[in-house]
Amino acid sequence: MNSYEQIKKLLFKLQPENAHHLAEILLRSDRFLPGVFDYIASKNLVTSEVLKQELFGCTFPNPVGLAAGFDKNATMIRGINALGFGFSEIGTVTPIAQAGNPKPRMFRHIEEETIQNAMGFNNDGLIAVRNRLEKQYPFSTPIGINIGKNKSTSEENAISDYVKLIRALHTLGDYIVINISSPNTPGLRDLQNETFIAE
Length: 199
Ligand SMILES: Cc1cc2nc3c(=O)[nH]c(=O)nc-3n(C[C@H](O)[C@H](O)[C@H](O)COP(=O)(O)O)c2cc1C
What we know:
CATH architecture: Alpha-Beta Barrel
Low-confidence stretches: none
Strand content: 15-25%
Bound molecules: flavin mononucleotide
């Protein structure tokens, strides 16, 4: 049994969201372990001339990134980097902190080997995330910032949420993702139209 299978046995005894919190504690522990994450990163990072890509002025050492939703609040960037990812995407971040949907809202389907997400953009909000990024940016691998509107913002005012987020965060990451696809924020997917994007 490899070490992932062993860790999985422990993690699967916990509620999925608690397993995530445990992972977060470990992946933000470098404050107490200076230099350890850099050492682990030097062992794990996969890079080669074949895998490396230059895109919009950034160097991606390999094409395997961590999608948004794992590090919603930009607390684990160095830990995630130490695992060997070629890039990672923080968020989804909304202008104002919000709690997300009532729990339980993350479901582990063991047979299907899937996780079902009904989180609803729980996050610490723009100011907290911006403060964290300001202290750390730039990073050794590219960081995307995934942005979304608050649940309480009406569809008519949605554009102002995205503008606020882009203005505040665009210098603190390497690319921005405009999230208009989550099924967990009512009406969000109605923003998938040419007028909204053009505006
Ligand atoms: C618990 C959970 C939370 C997620 N939260 C977000 C999010 O906040 N923003 C986002 O754009 N995608 C979010 N996603 C979607 C992931 O970014 C990704 O698209 C999805 O998990 C499919 O990729 P995978 O097959 O590699 O898991 C979330 C997914 C999960 C399982």
